[in-house]
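Please, structure for the following, as tokens.
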Amino acid sequence: MTVPSGRFTLHVTKESLSFSAAHFIAHHGSRELLHGHNYQLAITVEGVLGRDGYVIDFGLVKRAARRICEELDSRTLIPGRSETLSVVERRGEVEVTCEDGARFLLPCTDVVLLPIVHSSVEELSRYVCERLSDELRACASGGVRAVEVSVAEAPGQAASYRLAPRGGEPVDRGYRSGRPRRGARDRLRPRAGRARLRRSRPAPAVRSEDSGDF
């Protein structure tokens, strides 16, 4: 049987693909107050139709995205590559010191250290997109050609990042929409068990166009 050529676009927007987290953005000479957001994901997957009639099973996309959301939910997001923050872990606690002398002392169980420079929705959308692409590459049959993830921090305020390192398309494309950010109420939940700083997986190296399926 001949499978028709062309690409399909799948959209996954579920209320359950969300997480609540605290954060602040620090630059040289200024920083935000610690605050929180209820983040919402929207996922787009592009690909070719397989002989089974699928590009990819929706269930695979949802399960992979939920795993990432669970890692971030009810945590304080700390950028591990920040140029303005000093982060030290000791005795089950994480100490974050800012340029202005402000200091945060948090239990390791309440923190996720991310491989990003700022905890903005732009960098969060890139991080989640790269993680999701890796997850789908490990379980998909090869029909996926591009993945795009949008992260909204409030209604009407979102940023998106797209990975498409195949077929001559740009490796990535990011954009931001919505009004300027304002703080939202955060909610934090301690985890039981041994105190340990959650370190997110390192960000993948920049992909080239010949690096395979997305």
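Helices lie at 58-72, 121-139. Confidence is low (pLDDT under 50) at residues 166-173, 179-195, 202-214.
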